[in-house]
Amino acid sequence: MHKDRGEKLKMGPIWDLNIGYDSGDRVPFDDWVINYNNFVQQDAWMVPFWWPRLMEDPIFKTALKTRWFELRAGELQTAELLKTVDDIATNLQENGATDRNFNKWGDVNYPQSVNSLKTYLENRTVWMDNQIANF
């Protein structure tokens, strides 16, 4: 979290996506990241006590629900998410980034990785829709 003088608290930036999206066996797709400490016992980035506390706050949960479904009706629609993945995957291939990455870190089946990410996003958003609808 951070706060500029005279501004509200802000969360972010989004970070460590290398352990997100069902990568690294840290948090299953059907649980909240706030439960990270239940899955990882020794890590420099353990979740602070106040993250789970936010989910106990009805005002926060109502705001989260409103914002989630606003985004799901727009840029976080499943079709939009999958299009974004495809667009970025194509861009990374066309500019040689995938080749440079795999030359440095080892060979990975890129099309399979892209499809895995898309499947994860589809499953994760359905799970989140169901969870958040019950707030």
Gist?
This protein is an all-alpha fold and 135 residues long.
Write up what this structure looks like.
The chain is mainly α and 135 residues long. The chain has two domains: 1-54, no CATH class; 57-135, no CATH class. It is built from six helices and no strands. The protein has helices at residues 36-39, 50-54, 58-72, 78-94, 97-105, 110-133. The longest helix has 24 residues, at 110-133. 0% of the residues are buried.
Q: Helical region count?
A: 6
Q: What is the tally of beta strands?
A: 0
Radius of gyration: 17 Å
SS strand fraction: under 5%
Tell me roughly what share of residues is in helical segments.
40-55%
List the helices and strands and how they pair.
Elements: H1 36-39, H2 50-54, H3 58-72, H4 78-94, H5 97-105, H6 110-133
What features would you highlight for this structure?
single chain, 135 residues, 2 domains, 55% helix
